[in-house]
Amino acid sequence: MYKQSGDFVHFHHPQSPQPYWVSYFGTLIDVEILHRDILPFLNKTAFTSLDGVKAALPFEDVLITSDLQKIQDDILQGSVLIQLDVKDATCLLVRAEMKKAREVTIPEEEYSVVGPKEAFVESITTNLNLVRKRLPISELKVKEFTIGTLSKTKVAVLYIDGITNEENVNTVCQRLSDLQFNQILDSSIIAQLIADNGHSLFPQLIDTERPDRVAGVLAEGSVVILAEGSSHALIGPISAMELFNAFEDYYVNWQTATALRLIRIFAVSFSILVTPIYVAVLTYHYQLIPKDLMVTLVSSRRNIPLPPILEAIILELTIELLREAGARLPSKVGQTIGIVGGIVIGTAAVDAGLTSNVLLIIIALAALASFTTPVYRMGNTIRLLRFPFLLLADLWGLLGIAVAFIFLIIHLLNLTSLGRPYLEPIYPPRLKDFKDSFIRFPFSFQSKRPGYLQTKDQIRFSKKKASEVHDIDE
After folding, report:
1. Cα–Cα distance between 450 and 434 in angstroms, integer?
2. Does residue 63 sit in the same domain as residue 147?
3. Alpha carbon of 160 to those of 56, 421, 449: distances in Å?
4. How many C-alpha atoms does 152 have within 13 Å on its Cβ side?
5. pTM over 0.70
6. Tens digit of pLDDT for each residue in 126-152?
7. Pair (73, 136) in one structural domain
């Protein structure tokens, strides 16, 4: 079966002290290991059994087996098959896989000025090393799975024994075991397949490229998923408040971190609501506009032939087109397209009388505000949420915005992450968890782990001992 592939090698060494047959995929193994560490030992001595070959080879990962399925799987994962007789059903497998991976680099999506400058890569072994060197404890457990009928992707579930709730670990492991999918090419596919609600716009697992963030959430009692070939780890369960928290918040003082979190929450609310409010007020509630501002709005819309809703949708779609074009083009060209295209199109639209300069400023500010979320997937959610709010604002004005907001709250109340409430600590209300949600209290106030994780050990450190003041002579 394997001989039908051009990269499969099967050769016989009749001139050695003991004739043998070797089989492998040339594209999967490291040829240097084969010629340096395997073939010289086989050509040196006459072996009477595979046990003698196993004892002579300088490898730990050596297996003697007659299981055909095991043989097939190991060859496809980079093992060399050795037989003393081509007709033997029992053979020896030596792991000599080629390991090609890029070097550890700085984070690109979650870059921070303060803090470590390491990011995950596509090798699960390297990623586990980055986590273990930050948590060098025996309680850090790793459960491995192989998922995907075609891709055979190696997936690892990480948690800290004695801290993490076993129910959360069992939930993740059960969902991974039950997956029926042909190829798992990235951890983002796993996030969609094991989510509590696969139809929701809101991310129910956070993906991160920062090993320090993974180490931090593991110490809090979360579960982390790593996948071979993916440079992002999945974190769960999560709450909606974590979508506004950057891990850099823990590297600055608590006053600065709190201010940044409040700015992000305001920016997200502004990005979703400002354009629908503009449409609703100009369509139904112009009495709410102050007289001084009314003059400005009237003069800006004097020659606009379109109603506010069409004007807003055209500009929103233009912004989305520019953003998508900038993301798909090479980085330097994309940045130029985004800046130049926005200036040229915006200026031309105002000069042509297709849109008002006031709405252009509002749309631009809303687009900027949507970029303040630390989690990329949440930014996409905000971009899409604006459109139903816009349509309902055009139908019923401010009442339509209120109806859209009610449906949004109902959806969030019903949403869960690995079975845990999504809106915690708002609902169900947990006052002790507010110390690290909208605001970040000093570390001395965070002596307990988040309540929604239901960890085995709630105590992070002894608050009494931490607050003791020792005399300098002691």
Report:
1. 9
2. no
3. 39, 22, 13
4. 7
5. yes
6. 999 999 999 999 999 999 999 998 888
7. no
